[in-house]
Write a structure and sequence with these properties.
Layout (H helix, E strand, L loop, with lengths): L1 H36 L20 H11 L10 H17 L9 E4 L2 E4 L8 H11 L1 H10 L3 H32 L4 H7 L3 E2 L3 E2 L2 H4 L1 H14 L23 H26 L8 E2 L2 E3 L5 E3 L2 H27 L7 H29 L5
Helix pairs in contact: 1-10, 2-10, 3-4, 3-5, 3-10, 5-6, 6-9, 6-12, 9-10, 9-12, 10-11
Length: 363
């Protein structure tokens, strides 16, 4: 009992350490990447004893500022809900990571440890349920502030998240039909097979339409540019307009956590998760017959490294999109969701069902 608890606590610590540090690093990456794209220097002021390290101390300076800044609750606001809203947003964004497998398994003695915080048979449903509950933090923030702009931002965010999560949910039905499971760890293992002996049977290979629908809808669900209508800095400022200090920082953190979660989901569902092409538990087995034996620990480390690199690549892609595309109008956003992504996702499910029926139910 106690060793199992220690193992779970260790896995939780690893996931939280990685995710929270990556979220903090995102604030620096966002500044630097936007600066490079706009031919500016970017974050370069924060320093410790004169050392600036390319602006890497800025996230630390941000954290110190937010923790020490005065926390203001406007007159007439619901104090309890005002304090509860940012905590709910961060909580549900964090616990969703428990269902994501970041590696295969490691063997210590006679104990086999899955590299996933919570081994859930319906992990995919669990992740989506947690992400959906995060909308309550946004609604409460707009409602509790007693500010028309905050309320408008909250309503925009709610409508946007609900609209795009429908297309998001339908897009993954094709993936579930192909691999026949809601268990994310088994779904990743199912992507370890090959087409014609050398093309990995990843989700993007068998469900390319679902990949683009999921990627677009997921980006909209994170409320980031070009889908940042809930904030709309030149219009309504956002549902967090009446927040300051670390409570504002928690909304900011939740946005980055959701971005990382989307990158994790795209990697898990469509890019083979922790899979490395031609890597088996005993080493590499290449299509031309060559083999390279590896230890079980090397196999596990390569899997975690593969997952991390894919997630970082998607985070970089999201930043590129954020600083490249202009913001859509709200009517364009709704048209894209309901008249664009939704029918495409439904059509993809029908085509997938027909293809599986013709193939006898096997991918």
């Amino acid at each position: 009992m106690m060793p199992d608890l220690l193992i779970k606590l260790t896995l939780v610590g690893i996931v939280f350490f990685g995710v929270l540090n990556l979220a903090g690093l995102h604030t620096w990456i966002e500044r630097k990447q936007s600066a490079i794209m706009q031919d500016r220097i970017g974050a370069n002021r924060a320093s410790i004893y004169g050392f600036k390290l390319m602006g890497l101390f800025h996230p630390l300076a941000d954290a110190v500022k937010m923790f020490t800044k005065e926390d203001i609750i406007p007159d007439g606001a619901d104090r309890v809900l005002h304090m509860l809203a940012p905590a709910l947003s961060v909580f549900f964004a964090l616990v969703a990571f428990a269902g994501i497998p970041f590696g295969d398994r490691v063997v210590i003695g006679e104990r086999v440890i899955d590299l996933q915080v919570a081994r859930i048979d319906v992990a995919l449903l669990y992740v989506f349920a947690m992400l959906s509950l995060g909308v309550y933090g946004v609604i409460l923030a707009g409602f509790a502030s007693r500010n028309n702009y905050a309320m408008l931002g909250g309503l925009r965010a709610t409508a946007q998240m609900i609209s795009y999560e429908i297309a998001l949910g339908i897009a993954i039905i094709g993936v579930i039909m192909v691999y026949g499971t809601l268990d994310l760890q088994e779904l990743v293992r199912g992507q370890g097979r090959y087409v014609a002996g050398w093309i990995p049977l990843w989700g993007i290979v068998v469900q390319p339409v679902a990949f683009f629908v999921f990627l677009t809808a997921a980006l909209a669900a994170t409320k980031r540019t070009p889908f940042d209508m809930p904030e709309g800095e030149s219009e309504v400022i956002g549902y967090f307009v009446e927040y300051s200090g670390m409570k504002f920082g928690m909304f900011y953190l939740a946005d980055f956590l959701e971005t990382i979660m989307v990158a994790c989901l795209v990697t898990t569902l469509f890019l083979g998760g922790w899979q490395v092409p031609y890597l088996m538990p005993d080493g590499f087995h290449f299509p031309w017959g060559a083999e390279l034996p590896l230890s079980s620990w090397t196999y596990a480390v390569l899997g975690v490294g593969s997952f991390s690199i894919k997630v970082l690549a998607f985070c970089w892609l999201f930043m590129q999109i954020r600083w490249t595309l202009p913001r859509l109008r709200y009517d364009q956003l709704m048209v894209l969701g309901w008249k664009g992504l939704f029918p495409i996702a439904v059509a993809n499910v029908l085509v997938t069902a027909a293809a599986l029926a013709l193939l006898g139910g096997k991918s």
